[in-house]
């Protein structure tokens, strides 16, 4: 019985550290505020959708990263520059959209003088970290 308790405790500890590690990828970067709006399983087996509002203060940047699924971006306010692997940088204004394929390295920056805001919708593999920073 004691052995089963130790195994369960070890398993729980590993799960908690995994959750903390994946959450740290979403940790706030200076000048960037991420607000998760909703998260739901979808009909595609093993996938979930997550919507996040991301506010970029003037001059704030989110470094190179990727996702284990697709990202759909809708710029709500301001102007944001996106650098997507293999493509020239693009600046999007409020009302513009961008699709980023699964696993594609990309980055975002607010080069404007006012806050830039995007709505990011992720369709990702459930159980994987939603965001993987490039080292």
Characterise this structure.
The chain has 135 residues and is α+β, with helices and mostly antiparallel strands. The chain has one domain: Jelly Rolls (Sandwich). The protein has one helix spanning 2-25, and strands at residues 32-41, 47-56, 61-66, 69-77, 79-84, 90-93, 97-100, 106-109, 116-125, 132-133. Strands 1-2-9-4-7 form a 5-stranded antiparallel β-sheet, with no helix packed on it. The longest helix is centred in the first third of the chain and has 24 residues, at 2-25. The protein is globular, with a radius of gyration of 17 Å. The protein starts with a helix and ends with a strand. This is Cupin. Keywords: Signal. Residues 1-27 form the signal peptide.
- Give the distance, in angstroms, between the N- and C-terminal Cα atoms: 43 Å
**Annotated CATH architecture:** Sandwich
The level-1 CATH class: Mainly Beta
Structure annotation, total helices: 1
Protein name: Cupin
Pfam families: Cupin_2 (PF07883)
Keywords: Signal
Q: Brief description of this entry?
A:
The chain is α+β, with helices and mostly antiparallel strands and 135 residues long. Helix content is 18%, strand content 48%. The protein has a single domain, classed as Jelly Rolls (Sandwich), CATH 2.60.120.
């Amino acid at each position: 019985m004691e052995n089963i308790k130790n195994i369960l405790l070890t398993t729980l500890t590993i799960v908690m550290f995994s959750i903390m590690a994946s959450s740290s990828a979403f940790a706030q970067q200076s000048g960037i505020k991420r607000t998760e709006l909703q998260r739901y399983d979808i009909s595609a087996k093993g996938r979930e959708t997550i919507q996040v509002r991301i506010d970029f203060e003037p001059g704030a940047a989110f470094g190179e990263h990727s996702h284990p699924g697709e990202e759909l971006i809708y710029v709500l306010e301001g102007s944001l520059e996106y650098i997507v692997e293999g493509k020239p940088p693009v600046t999007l204004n409020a009302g513009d959209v961008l699709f980023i394929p699964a696993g594609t390295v990309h980055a975002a920056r607010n080069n404007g003088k006012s806050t830039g805001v995007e709505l990011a919708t992720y369709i990702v593999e459930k159980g994987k970290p939603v965001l993987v920073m490039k080292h």
